[in-house]
Amino acid sequence: MNLQHGVLAIAAILAIVSVAKVAPRVGVAVPIALVVVGIGASYLPFVPNLDVDPHLILTVVLPPILYSAAVNVHATDFRRNVKAIGGLSVLLVVISALAVGFLLHWLIPDLSLAAAIALGAVVSPPDAVAAISIGKRLGLPPRLVIVLEGEGLINDATALVMLRSAVAATAGVVSLWDVVGDFAFAVAAGLVIGLLAGFVTVWIRAKLDEPVLTTAISFIVPFLAFVPAEEIHASGVLAVVVAGLVTGHQSARHFTAQDRISERTNWRTVQLLLDNGVFLLMGYQIVIVVRDVREGEDDVARTVLIGLAVTAALVLLRVLFVLPLTALLRRDQRRALARTDRLQGILVRLTERQHESAKSAARAGWLASLVRRRQADDAYLTTEGLGWRGGAALAWAGMRGVVTLAAAQSLPESVPHRAQLILIAFTVAIVTLLGQGATLPVLIRKLRIAGTDAEADRRELTRLIGEITAEGEDVLDNPDLRQSNGQPFDPDVLEAARRENAAIGQALTQPHDPAESSAAHQRRELHRLLLESAQAVLLDARESGTYTSRALGHVQHMLDTEVSSLDPAEAH
């Protein structure tokens, strides 16, 4: 990297941070704003052209992006929505790739069907980043956001496996069964490698006792999953996603609180720079893509028109697919509601059986836990059902992004009309991002799609905190409770702990409203003021130089740990 590229990288980071700060305030999704900024920058005369190796994006940039998203997806929510996620990320991607392939083969007669399907695979997976950014800002229902997140994680794997098979078909004769077999192997092997990478690295990181060391390991987890999978021609993308889901699910059990705080902060930073950097690059490279088409003696205007036709086909296919999918999900909601009484009756009978023999009680307890989980799943389906309004938002949230950009440029040089195909893919990505991305907020407002019920959330939170507080009381009331040295706790200390346990429960259930003046709020306010005064004294001590750096560093670390426990608004 020369000095010019270094300056360009610094400018890109500053642009990403600036846009990420300003865009939400003016009601624009950050990815959309960055594409516009990139397009504008590409036409500046003093800005150099930048040819980025697409394999660098697919092998170095994409794995961390997917991993950082996967670790923040709740595995239970993913499982509950697997039907919708699987349909959108596998079935719809395959249908879209084939349909676009046949359309391109018809519009460009000298383009082979295999090459056309390869481009169909390139443009078939939506990128959920822009949709999620818009949805969270406007308060989309959580279930809709989860479906979009899950689709964005899995559809890349489907598209890239299809792309690899289609590219292989352009170089020789490949049978349908070869494609199906390769697809099945890629999925199965990717799942296994992802599970191994996830569980092994979680086990290793649980043995480490320093956040810096566990964070260092976390940075290589995406590549530990991606590289071996790609080496055996499995789906590296799927392996990364599975490893991320495993890590996120296991972190609460095996990582310390400081490890989880560090991981969230570091990976949010990585995701901010990489994901948004690709959107900036998408707009920035438009001049290069158009130039390549002209040099290949293809008509730019006709190519853009073909890209618009492909975009229209993809939008129509998604709408037609989401309609029956929404009907299917609504049917599942009705079925879940209908079996509520039956599951409760089964649970009552299993509870009665737990008073029988030990063997029968153990089996009944295991079955009862399965029934309770099914009841929880059904409650989720009935309270967070996906209606027709949500289905409309889901159908319109088909913006393309990272994979479309990189995969299009990874097409082999031997593919006829390669530059034209890349411009078609760019047209699809930019038109869907700017067109659908800009109109999605309008659609959400017009349909009056409501988010979560604040009162229901409050009741659920109160119930959960009640369970936590009750468990704490049981621990303190245990007559066998002892210190680590075997001695009983002092009664005064136990009483203080009971008061603290009750105070924790009250503080967690109280809304963080500055207008409130409850005891919990007053305690939090005083705690914050004491921390501020401590920080002020520490700063004065640094300026005076009367204390060693060892003492100052130790106290600063303790204060930072305390501040990290505050609500983000209070900490700020």
Could you characterize what this model shows?
This protein has 24 helices and no strands. The longest helix has 39 residues, at 300-338. By secondary structure, the chain is mainly alpha-helical. The model is unreliable at 568-572 (pLDDT under 50). 35% of the residues are buried. It has helices at 3-22, 30-42, 54-70, 75-80, 82-107, 113-123, 128-138, 142-171, 176-207, 211-231, 236-254, 257-284, 286-295, 300-338, 340-353, 358-383, 388-396, 402-409, 418-447, 454-477, 491-509, 519-544, 549-564, 568-571. The radius of gyration is 27 Å and the shape is globular. It is found in: Cell membrane. It is a multi-pass membrane protein. Its main location: membrane. It comes from Dactylosporangium cerinum.
Quick recap:
The protein is an all-alpha fold.
Task: Lay out the secondary structure.
Elements: H1 3-22, H2 30-42, H3 54-70, H4 75-80, H5 82-107, H6 113-123, H7 128-138, H8 142-171, H9 176-207, H10 211-231, H11 236-254, H12 257-284, H13 286-295, H14 300-338, H15 340-353, H16 358-383, H17 388-396, H18 402-409, H19 418-447, H20 454-477, H21 491-509, H22 519-544, H23 549-564, H24 568-571
Organism: Dactylosporangium cerinum
Pfam families: Na_H_Exchanger (PF00999)
Main location: membrane
